[in-house]
């Protein structure tokens, strides 16, 4: 029998094999900034189990709407030829058109959840380029809650409904957030009116993560992607307005997009990029690879590179919108990964999810299939309905290299980008976390009515939380801006710890109302 020194506590976090986890905050990377390595076994086990938690609904982004359209390139990035930065073919020529499919979604709640809930919105675009598929997968908000992918399953678990009651609980939500100070900036946006877009047509989109562009010479720059509504503008909702809409129709955003396209009022977004030289940029107060941060526009202006128009509704929702499958690792030549840790974790997770959720051969479905040639040596798997063979390929040869008429490697389209690394393989957070500065800048940049709504929503949500959670959140808000923390604290002091009587954050309110308002009836 083992003694106490030989046992680990029943409260100790372990892997599924029973191995105690000594660091559940950081994946293993080359240096503190990355890249990550494939032998991150704890992360891989954790994320692959997470990817398989829902059958068959998406774990996140389950509620969605979509439409077909076209992307038209400008041939420039701002005032320069785009070829100075990237050799990706879809951007090179002014007027060049690429078919696209867009899927908009809410993140946390299920397939038939209200589209009025406070939640980031997914903004995912599939480009059917001549070089194959490019998926630009992002959100309406330009930043995120966390910076290390090891925390992603924990974050979603905290935000989703309680595993016992099956009801979302703000105490669980803020328990995680209060222990994750890097979330402060995202929370500032999420609990402001920006947390409830009026519809899908009138919201921004962002790639969130930092990517790279690579030109013909193999030179790379860091880029961030941003979608801005061109003619329809941006609209957000106050909580009371969202409540009123939800009482009438909880599918309003899906219907709005469908009806607008049906009327011929095609929504348009301009795609812009921010560009930064590849490097650590010690002159900045933050790490440019940190997805919880914005790149200041005065230093890194938005450079327009093209526009997207959505002009055709799906013929069938399930076939197209529900089965549309995206991945952050789906890039074409001239586009590349940065060492953004969250991006590298998402790149494994997203495509792994699609293989599980839709099937091994999900890429053969028309909505996911490239319009370019497909020829691989992969075969078999559930629901395979055609071999990926090239015309004239020897069908007996499903391997490479071969001298018997098999597939051959393609010629390079430009010089390879070869980033250099000279750092220890380590588990370590990035050096410049700076979790509160931009949250304060965002708070001060809001208009008065936006700040008022932010404070009211936070106070309503935090009233159900323990005093320890409240104190941590007040401390984070105060670090961001003294007035920010003071106003949240004042609101909580005035309201005490009672459950609220307005808004959406008190599930008990609806229970009480149903008891009081229900009408008795005789049996029949």
TrEMBL record:
Coiled coil: none annotated. The keyword Metal-binding applies. InterPro entries: Catalase, Catalase_AS, Catalase_clade1/3, Catalase_core, Catalase_haem_BS, Catalase_immune_responsive, Catalase_sf. It catalyses: 2 H2O2 = O2 + 2 H2O. SMART domains: Catalase (SM01060). Residues 1-35, 401-420, 498-524 are annotated as: Disordered. Its EC number is 1.11.1.6. CDD domains: catalase_clade_1. Keywords: Heme, Hydrogen peroxide, Iron, Metal-binding, Oxidoreductase, Peroxidase. Residues 14-408 form the Catalase core domain. The keyword Nucleotide-binding does not apply. It holds the Pfam family Catalase-rel. It is an enzyme of class 1 (oxidoreductase). Belongs to the catalase family. Decomposes hydrogen peroxide into water and oxygen; serves to protect cells from the toxic effects of hydrogen peroxide. This is Catalase. It comes from Paenibacillus spongiae.
């Amino acid at each position: 029998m083992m003694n106490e020194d030989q046992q680990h506590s029943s409260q100790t976090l372990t892997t599924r094999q029973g191995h105690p986890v000594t660091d559940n905050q950081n994946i293993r990377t080359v240096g503190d900034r990355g890249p990550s390595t494939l032998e991150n076994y704890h992360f891989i086990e954790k994320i692959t189990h997470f990817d398989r938690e829902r059958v068959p609904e998406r774990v996140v982004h389950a509620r969605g709407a979509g439409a077909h359209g076209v992307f038209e390139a400008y041939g420039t990035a701002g005032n320069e030829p785009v070829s100075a930065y990237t050799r990706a073919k879809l951007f090179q020529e002014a007027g060049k058109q690429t078919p696209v499919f867009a899927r908009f979604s809410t993140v946390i709640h299920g397939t038939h959840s209200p589209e009025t809930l406070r939640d980031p919105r997914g903004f995912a675009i599939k480009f059917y380029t001549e070089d194959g598929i490019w998926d630009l997968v992002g959100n309406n908000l330009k930043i995120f809650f966390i910076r290390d992918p090891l925390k992603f399953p924990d974050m979603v678990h905290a935000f989703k409904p309680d595993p016992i009651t099956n009801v979302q609980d703000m105490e669980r939500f803020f328990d995680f957030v209060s222990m994750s100070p890097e979330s402060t900036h995202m929370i500032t946006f999420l609990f402001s009116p920006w947390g409830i877009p009026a519809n899908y047509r009138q919201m921004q989109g962002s790639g969130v993560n930092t990517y790279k562009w690579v030109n013909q010479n193999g030179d790379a720059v860091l880029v961030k992607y941003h979608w801005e509504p061109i003619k329809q503008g941006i609209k957000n909702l106050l909580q009371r307005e969202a409540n009123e809409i939800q009482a009438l129709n909880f599918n309003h955003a899906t219907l709005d997009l469908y009806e607008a396209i049906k009327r011929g009022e095609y929504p348009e977004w301009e795609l812009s990029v921010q560009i930064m030289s590849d490097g650590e940029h010690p002159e900045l107060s933050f790490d440019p690879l940190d997805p919880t941060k914005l790149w200041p526009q005065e230093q890194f202006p938005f450079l327009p590179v093209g526009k997207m128009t959505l002009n055709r509704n799906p013929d069938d929702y399930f076939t197209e919108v529900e089965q549309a499958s995206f991945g952050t690792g789906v890039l074409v030549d001239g586009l590349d990964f940065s060492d953004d840790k969250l991006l590298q974790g998402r790149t494994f997770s997203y495509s792994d999810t699609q293989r599980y959720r839709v099937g091994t051969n999900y890429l053969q479905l028309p909505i996911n299939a490239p319009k370019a040639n497909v020829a691989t040596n992969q075969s078999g798997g559930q629901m395979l309905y055609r071999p990926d063979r090239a015309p004239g390929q020897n069908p007996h040869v499903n391997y490479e290299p071969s001298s018997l008429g098999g597939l051959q490697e393609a010629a390079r389209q430009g010089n390879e980008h070869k980033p250099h690394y000279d750092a220890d393989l380590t588990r370590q957070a990035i050096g410049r976390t700076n979790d509160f500065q931009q949250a304060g800048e965002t708070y001060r940049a809001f208009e008065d009515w936006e700040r008022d709504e932010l404070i009211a929503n936070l106070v309503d949500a935090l009233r159900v939380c323990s005093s320890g959670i409240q104190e941590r959140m007040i401390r984070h808000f105060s670090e961001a801006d003294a007035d920010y923390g003071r106003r949240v604290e004042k609101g909580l002091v005035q309201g005490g710890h009672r459950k609220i009587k307005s808004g959406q954050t008190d599930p008990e309110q609806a229970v009480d109302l149903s008891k009081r308002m229900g009408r008795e009836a005789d049996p029949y």
